Amino acid sequence: MNAPDDPPTPDDARARLRAADADRELVHRILSAAMERGSLTLGEYEERAGKAVAAKTFGDLDALTDDLPVGQLGVPMPFVGATTVTHIHSSADRRPVQHKFALMSGTELRGHATVGDGLTATAVMGGIDIDLREVEFTAPMLTIRCTALMGGIDITVPPDVGVDVDGWAVMGGFGGRAAGPGTPGAPTVRVVGLALMGAVEVKRKDRELRR
């Protein structure tokens, strides 16, 4: 929790930003797709759609979709705020990182690391933070094979990268709101695996938010 004089975190600052008509329309499309899929009843859709019309901030809109499988609804998500394009390097001077393992501890992959076409992440009663916003991609598709056993794996990708999430959760969670196509020429990150009494979460964040 932030102290009264602390600056707001990026997520808190976004929640207080004023939403535009285009943002409310996007939420309407998400709610409509969720109703057609069966994730919302007609009554729930009508209630949330009414709140979306009156929503003033991004925080108001996020509250209407936080519990929905947005990445599985087929609604195109705009990549707002992307300032750079993620390139694929044909070769790298450094050996790609292929494994991350956390046993009752924490580890991370971030910064200017190099990744290839595969990465195995295993968290057993621990946590793994994989931030791909500044890494060097050397293959058009990176497959991250996740196993979270009473642990957590957080994966952050830049806005222009394509994301495919296809995993299983047993008494846990596997997914996030990041699934969707990327911009032409950017790599794709495919996240697969199992979360057993644990969680695998994939999210998009613009590079500017880290500064």
Compact overview of the structure:
With 211 residues, the chain is an alpha/beta fold.
Q: What is the molecular shape?
A: globular
Mean pLDDT equals 84
* Tally of individual helices: 4
Order of helices and strands: HHHHEEEEEEEEEEE
Distance between the termini: 20 Å
Taking Cα atoms only, what radius of gyration do you get, to the nearest Å?
18 Å
Helix/sheet category? alpha/beta
Query: What is the strand content?
Result: 25-35%
The overall strand count is: 11
Q: Biggest sheet: strands, sense, closure? A: 6 strands, parallel
**Could you state the oligomeric state of the chains shown?**
single chain
* Low-confidence regions: 1-10
| Percent range of helical residues | 10-25%
InterPro entries: DUF1707_SHOCT-like
Pfam family, one: DUF1707
Domain DUF1707: 17-69
Protein name: DUF1707 domain-containing protein
Characterise the protein shown here.
The structure is a single chain. The protein is built from 4 helices and 11 strands. The two termini are 20 Å apart. By secondary structure, it is α/β, with parallel strands linked by helices. The strands form 2 sheets. Strands 1, 3, 5, 6, 8 and 10 form a 6-stranded parallel β-sheet that branches. Strands 2-4-7-11-9 form a 5-stranded parallel β-sheet, with no helix packed on it. Helix 2 runs antiparallel to helix 3 (42-54) and helix 2 (21-37) runs parallel beside helix 4 (58-65).
